[in-house]
Amino acid sequence: MKHQQLTPFPDGFLWGASTSAYQVEGAWNEGGKGPSVIDKASFGDKITDFTVTSDHYHRFKQDVALFAELGLKTYRFSIAWSRLFPQGSGELNAEGVAFYQQLIDELRHHNIEPLVTLYHFDLPWALQEKGGWSDPATIEAFVHFARTAFELYGDRVNYWLTINEQNMMILKGDVIGTLPPGTPDPQKTLYQQNHHMMLAQAKAMIACHEMLPQAKIGPAPNISCVYPASARPEDVLAANNFTSIRNWLYLDLACFGHYNAVAWSFMREKGYLPTITEQEMEILRQGKPDFIAFNYYASATVGADLPHSDGEEAGGKLLDQQMAGIDTSVYVGVGNRWLKKNQFNWYIDPVGFRITARQIYERYRLPLIVTENGLGAFDELTADNKIHDDYRIAYLRDHIEQLQLAISDGVELFGYCPWSAIDLVSTHQGIRKRYGFIYVNRDEHDLKDLARFKKKSFSWYQRVIQTNGQNLADGIDY
Ligand code: BG6
Questions:
Q1: Which residues of the chain have pLDDT under 70?
Q2: Which of 82, 108, 272, 357 is the most exposed place for a label (fewest CB within 10 A)?
């Protein structure tokens, strides 16, 4: 659809930026925090671990002051579950409670709306040792953690997110999941874990509505539109299969309280069906979100069978949460010659962003907020402490343009939080894969002084926010 006139970003639009606890805080064993699955994972020698990251735990005041200067209306961060409950449940850690209290107060002091993710990949290790998400007791531990967070911070937090990228944890269980190596029947285990997470999420949404009637809560999956490799009906069907398995399985359960039919038949066919009860399905029907948050980096393209001509490796690297993967009886991830790639081989597809927003909104008719979108790149710090990240500005500009088109198409969108507010450690590609508006002066293994420097994209995004998305021009004094 071509618009003669674009609909402006609504008043009060939540221009924001995101981080997650384990990627930005550091202080992995300080302030009474218990270990999480991340602290026990090994990442090889080439990249850094998550012990110090950006040291936000000690520098949050300085960081929030910079976020305020950037003009953020909202800041999306996650609570490290094992900072509140070092053992996952049981005793509450007063120092952990105080840390998030101070962070939230600091944000409020600067008129920045906190947008809080309850769980972003960092399951407490104590729970993992007892079976993690395979153990139904983890559901109750999560609900207790969520209730505690609502009780502690509910008077100052209006927007909550349940679980970050649950679909990626299940689809890429080997990369960012909570599956111990050597688990027998890994796929079946993952889909059972998925069911447990869904229940945990539904119960948390019910609790939020009971305890905090003024607050809003929603899921935060990674949603990408899926293109067929060609107009061949079999390819279209494959794209349809993957859309259900990758996207709608998760959002249908969260929003409609039922299993997506195609995803269910996929699980049945493969022998992955979870054990479920009617009582659990009733809980899933009762737990309803107020909005949908979604993360978007790139679209996916799949075909019915192995590609012949475009030279792309089918499936993409397994070690990457953005790649479609491969299951020849259902879909085969293929390349897309219409799209460019970033330095890490991820596709760049701004138009796919508009398509994705439209697909989600049309299917669920709930307000949307983007909780991640951004460009990982090897930024260079110049001798005068500058970072000329014009490539990031171009990426963000192109995506924000498409967001405005989506709004003009009728999508109800109330916020945009690019990844990331400040440099942090990537899920599995170290600190040199940077995303932030603020540079953190450290390297993979040399922590240097961890000083903060504003990138060119900082000045640019500052103006975007000041003009409520009207001025997206590249040129900016820096
Ligand atoms: C999302 C996660 O998968 O993508 C983030 O929610 C992550 O935690 C982001 O950092 C970017 O991925 P990566 O692998 O480049 O860090």
A1: 177, 307-322
A2: 108
